[in-house]
Amino acid sequence: SSLPTIGLIPGDGIGHEVIPAARRILETVLPGIPLVDLDAGFATFERTGKALPPSTVQVLRDQCQGALFGAVSSPIHKVAGYSSPIVQLRKELDLYANVRPVVNKKAFNASGEQVGCDLVIVRENTECLYVKQERLETDANGESIAFATRQISQRASRRITETALRLAQQRAASRSSGTSLLTVVHKSNVLSVTDGLFRETARAVFAAAGSPSAVKIEDQLVDSMVYRLFRAPDSVDVVVAPNLYGDILSDAAAALAGSLGLVPSANVGPSFVMGEPVHGSAPDIAGKGVANPVAAIRSAGMLLAHLGYADEAQRIDRAVEEVMTRGIATPDVPGGRASTNDVTSAVVAALQA
Ligand code: NAD
Ligand code: MN
């Protein structure tokens, strides 16, 4: 067999606690899997002058099929020469889709009923306002006025919708109902050119796929989409959105999960995939041994699923579910009193049972 080589990039803070936890899980489900330790982050920047060393990118490109990224600390004030390695990695490796599932049987709706949620946000990762073309001008009164360019291309809109549609079809196939719902998020009542192009391209992708009857497609304005996420989280299934809307929606959706420490994501490109817990480096708890490893472990599961190891990914999900059901959790989860190591060992034990 030829197991995929995975780059492990802990980054800063609790990245150094949750990535070793995820490593134990990878080594348990795929014994002998080649893992390479790689540097990036603020500490790396302070040591070497580069937040993302070229050697890290080169090893990822030349030797790895996938990676698992922890979190990095970003300075609040602008530091000369520093730019976020995660944003750079998404660009360098063309990781155009950010896929963020949020599953929580205990999620509440706005009426206080425990309705649960099982949804996934598919965020375009390469354009929109993140092309970072800002400029400062002076208005007629001599005051500053700032502009930003928002780029929405047919190509990026098409490939992100194709990714979301594939996911919607997989979810439909795995359900007894045989159906799923794909929601296209936009604001084309105001931005008819940019968001209009996104929405029309999404519709065209659906039509080009033969309008599969298993998937119902709808669209929703981004502001009312946020409302709906909290009002009726159980009415949401697969959501596809341009970069900025997707960024905001996916953090909002993470709130439904109960703790940031539970929410995984995957950055997906044509030839590379990078798992990444949604949380940051959590300096307030770093080094205390209480970081929740579940988001990183679930991200490892998503990574394996995207690399074709669906059974292993499912085993990881089930083991995590079992451990959480038994109430073994870190303190960020209500009632949790376990350490990072306790939770990780419990998941390893559940995998070996
Ligand atoms: P954060 O996600 O690091 O922490 C927010 C809160 O959630 C904190 O109270 C933290 O203790 C808690 N938390 C987060 N993950 C947890 C886990 N696994 N287990 C238990 N508790 C957890 O966000 P922040 O405090 O806004 O940012 C801290 C640093 O992280 C900043 O430097 C920021 O730039 C960076 N950050 C990085 C990423 C990334 O690398 N993708 C994402 C967000 C923030
Ligand atoms: Mn964000």
UniProtKB/TrEMBL annotation:
InterPro entries: IsoCit/isopropylmalate_DH_CS, IsoPropMal-DH-like_dom. It comes from the Eukaryota. GO terms for biological process: isocitrate metabolic process; lysine biosynthetic process; tricarboxylic acid cycle. Residues 5-347 form the Isopropylmalate dehydrogenase-like domain. One of its GO terms (cellular component) is mitochondrion. This is Isopropylmalate dehydrogenase-like domain-containing protein. GO terms for molecular function: homoisocitrate dehydrogenase activity; isocitrate dehydrogenase (NAD+) activity; magnesium ion binding; NAD binding. Belongs to the isocitrate and isopropylmalate dehydrogenases family. It holds the Pfam family Iso_dh. The lineage of its organism: Eukaryota, Fungi, Fungi incertae sedis, Blastocladiomycota, Blastocladiomycetes.
